[in-house]
Amino acid sequence: MANELEQLRSMTTVVADTGEIESIKAYKPQDATTNPSLLLAAAQMPAYQSLVDEAVSYGESQPGSSEDRLSACIEKLFVIFGLEILKIIPGRVSTEVDARYSFSTEATINKAKRFIDLYKKSGIDRERILIKIASTWEGIRAAEVLEKEGIHCNMTLLFGLGQAIACAEAKATLISPFVGRILDWYLKDLGVDSIAPQEDPGVKSVSKIYNYYKKFGYKTEVMGASFRNAGEIRELAGCDLLTIAPKLLDELQKGNGTLTRKLDASKAQKEEIEKISMNEEMFRWMLNEDAMATEKLADGIRRFNADSDKLRAYVRKRFEAAVKA
After folding, report:
1. Which of 98, 99, 157, 228 falls between 20 and 30 A from 140, CA-CA?
2. One digit per residue, pLDDT tens: the chain, 325 residues?
3. Distance separating alpha carbons of residues 306 and 89, to the nearest angstrom
């Protein structure tokens, strides 16, 4: 019998949630996602120092102030890792916009276009790139503009139905609801150590979003993300995509249980679900009324920004050392 990972692939597109190129080679996913946290970890590994060196050399050659050149270096580093990943996978790689731009539509659009231009100069068509953007109101508006220009977006830091509906109505290509971070919040809030996968609030949230999308015919795809255990993944079998860390990919690959489809578009269309009319007022109200989503969105932006700052500090040292040499 096929292992659990192979069974999952028969009903869901499997995406590798890592910046480690060797892990991507090992598990052969369709797509791959990266973020500042993953890239920070990968950039410090000895195996990838040549990629960092390449980004530093690029930054040195750019015009402008030292800060301008450092920014160019970091942008190039994101793209270099993306390029290495694209050599391995047949599908798309997600490259993330700085968290500090989460509340600026204009800055998000500009950063996305710079990424796309860097990929284009390396011979990569925009169809193979997803720009990751925080699911704030401003980020969603940026995605709406970018999608109209043929730049596809992966909406991240998504914790609730209101965010998901706004993303779908903006015609974002993909959303990445964070299953594990939702679970983290409820474990702390309820003061418990664990919740069974069948009752997992993160699993229930993604299932609700998936059923809503399929009920009303939205084209935006749902990609569950940020898993804490393989049980969550098993409960979301059938979701459009699932992005999974290497440790859990390994567990599924070694698993020999029978996987059952839990999410089904044809069944979702028969569900009795009320359609919500979405605008900025409704978006902000639904977010405000969901303490978990409000807190985890703000926390997620802070965390990604902190790791972006660490990555910037790490690259700055390498960059300044190269300039002095």
Report:
1. 228
2. 799 999 999 999 999 998 888 888 888 899 998 888 888 888 888 988 999 899 989 988 999 888 898 899 999 999 999 999 999 999 999 999 999 999 999 999 999 999 999 999 999 999 999 999 999 999 999 999 999 999 999 999 999 999 999 999 999 999 999 999 999 999 999 999 999 999 999 999 999 999 999 999 999 999 999 999 999 999 999 999 999 999 999 999 999 999 999 999 999 999 999 999 999 999 999 999 999 999 999 999 999 999 999 988 988 888 787 766 6
3. 29
Q: Which residue numbers are catalytic?
A: 132
**CA 178 to CA 142: how far, in whole Å?**
21
Instruction: Map out the domains of the chain as residue ranges.
Output: 4-324
Distance CA 233, CA 257 (A): 13
CB 36 within 8 A of CB 308: yes
How would you classify the pairing of strands 13-17 and 31-33? parallel
Prediction pTM value: 0.94
Q: How far apart are CA 112 and CA 153, in angstroms?
A: 9
